[in-house]
Amino acid sequence: MNAYHLALMSTFVYAPFSTDKKPYISSPPPYDSIGSIGHVLQNQLGRRVKPTQFDGAGPYHMICEEVPYSKRLEIMPYDPLRYEKESQEGWRNPEDVHFLYDTESGTNTQAFITHNDKVVLISVRGTQEMLADASRDADARQVRFKEGQGQAHRGFYGAFQAAKPFVERYLNAFYTGKQTLIVCGHSLGGAIALLLADWLRREWSDNTQLYTYGAPRAGDAAFVKAAQPLTHHRIVNHNDPVPAVPLPWMDAEWKLALPGTALFFSSPVSGIALLLAGLVNLQGDSYEHHGEQWHFMPRKPGGGSEAAVLWQPGCALIDEQTCARYVGEIGLDGDMPNRLAVAGTHHSSDSGYARAALTNLLRWNASVEERNGKLFSEAEIRDIYAQLLSTAQLLESWQARSFNEFRWEIRRRGEVRFYGKSDLELRAIYADAIEQGERVRAEQSPALTRTQQRLLAQAERLVTPRSVFGEHADRVDLAELVAQWRAINDNQVAERLAAVTKESARAFA
């Protein structure tokens, strides 16, 4: 349930607080724009109206309960006379209190924050189609993470620095010391949220939780190791390449480093060669992922997010498959922007992540209500196992070309990276590529076998009401609340879609 609700919050933060105006100006109430943050917090939740529109996403329906006003998510009342002191300090209206749109430092960072007696909720915005944000995604250089240990992506760190005083001021005013700090973010927002959450864990509360969706890698190995105590649920879509970003081993023209390029041209089977070439480069760079990964995997190759199953493969060849394949294709074609544009549906906070989170909440609830807690249906096991088996067969089929075939291939393609190389240099490059490919295959083959076993083991895992609903599992009215939620027509449609798989012409697994 948390994964679904926070996926919505990670989508919701793309909305304006009041209206989408240029240049940005903070505004007082009324907040009448449907789907805006101010409208949902003040006009709907504040008046016991269940929201269904979150920015342009919807309709979505949260599982809501009626609570006293004092326990609802807070939005500051608007009374200039009563709050004159706050106004003089910069809190002139609710938008100033709850919303950040950074124009001063040029990061275009956007976030909102609210709270009740149990939680402080912070949501950070991901990538928009803006030049400043795009440069932030592409700028892979690292700087010291001054608030902790290790190195962080320079652009992500700058965006975190813009959000930090906004969050700090709010916590100084409203944090009681007893609330859980919950941070969420999609895409770029997830990377910023990771830095923010680790700082909160260190400076404010050990009781900090982070949910990210399709987030790029934000720091190096030292940062990831030092941030291990942070509870981080990292959720990725199988067909989303953005978690592979940044790509420090790509040059200015988006060409792969030599080992990956050479490995691809040394292989007659292009599909598995792309995967191996991408994995070679992913394992060799200076960025690492943090957190416990949860993986939305379509039941059929090419299936949509509504038919994806949430689980933990624990194998790089599955976890990183799309990332590896995309970076391999980028290296050959030099079209990183186009590749990410094609992946838009799978990376979308709405159609990619919120939709998958909704159908998996429905699926897990069905596990409890209809399958005696069994995580997967028999059909789901068959579908996923078939993909694992196909990947294993592809991996086993990989066999390197001879050096003469490799040399002929790079000359036929006119690959500029090899211009001016002597035969001796080409032989060294070829040998290194084959060695790295064999190493990755030797690592991934047993890992893939373990993943097949892991699938069968997870199939025996019992999903309990607490697994689905957390602390709310003990509520006496939970069954009634869930029944009302499931009866909503949009959710009934989602339940039907969750059982449908779409097939595409071709995929690598």
Describe this protein with a few key phrases.
21 helices, disordered C terminus, globular, alpha/beta, two-stranded antiparallel sheet, Rossmann fold, 8-stranded mixed sheet, 509 residues
Describe the structure.
The model is unreliable at 129-137, 251-256 and 500-509 (pLDDT under 50). Helix 1 (2-12) packs antiparallel against helix 15, helix 6 (154-174) packs across helix 7 (188-203) and helix 9 packs antiparallel against helix 10. Helix 8 (221-226) links the parallel strand 7 and strand 8 (231-237). This protein is α/β, with parallel strands linked by helices and 509 residues long. The chain contains 21 helices and 10 strands. The protein has one domain (99-472): Alpha/Beta hydrolase fold, catalytic domain (Rossmann fold). It starts with a helix and ends in an 11-residue tail after the last helix.
Task: Give the CATH superfamily.
Answer: Alpha/Beta hydrolase fold, catalytic domain
Low-confidence stretches: 129-137, 251-256, 500-509
Secondary structure tally: strands: 10
Helicity range: 40-55%
Q: What's the pLDDT, averaged over the residues?
A: 84
Overall geometry comes to globular
Q: Given the helix and strand composition, which structural class is it?
A: alpha/beta
Share in β-strands: 5-15%
- CATH A-level architecture: 3-Layer(aba) Sandwich
Count of discrete domains: 1
Q: Mind telling me the CATH class?
A: Alpha Beta
